[in-house]
Amino acid sequence: MNWDQIEGKWEQAKGKIKEKWGKLTDDDIAQINGKRDQLAGRIQERYGYTKERAEEEMKDWERDTRW
């Protein structure tokens, strides 16, 4: 699934994001509001990941997410 599809299904995606990255708060998810770069930044912040690791996790999640 590509990011355009995720943005279009943001209400559904929020739950799946919360399952994958449980350290993200509801406020984080509300502020992200479907923006990929915002999600990457929040993952880095909450998990202490490098930008590269956050991006890799997001790519894996995008590829593996089933609706």
Structure overview:
The chain has 67 residues and is an all-alpha fold. The chain has one domain: Protein Yjbj, Chain: A, CATH 1.10.1470. Helices cover 75% and strands 0% of the residues. The chain has five helices and no strands. The relative contact order is 0.17. The mean pLDDT is 94.
Q: Keywords for this structure?
A:
Protein Yjbj, Chain: A, CsbD family protein, YjbJ_sf, mainly alpha, 5 helices, single chain, globular, YjbJ, 67 residues
Look at the structure and give the CATH class: Mainly Alpha
- Gyration radius over CA: 11 Å
Total beta strands: 0
* Euclidean distance between termini CA atoms: 9 Å
Arithmetic mean pLDDT? 94
Largest sheet features: none
The proportion of strand residues reads under 5%
Secondary structure elements and pairings:
Elements: H1 3-8, H2 10-20, H3 26-32, H4 36-47, H5 51-64
Gist of the model:
By secondary structure, this protein is an all-alpha fold. It has helices at 3-8, 10-20, 26-32, 36-47, 51-64.
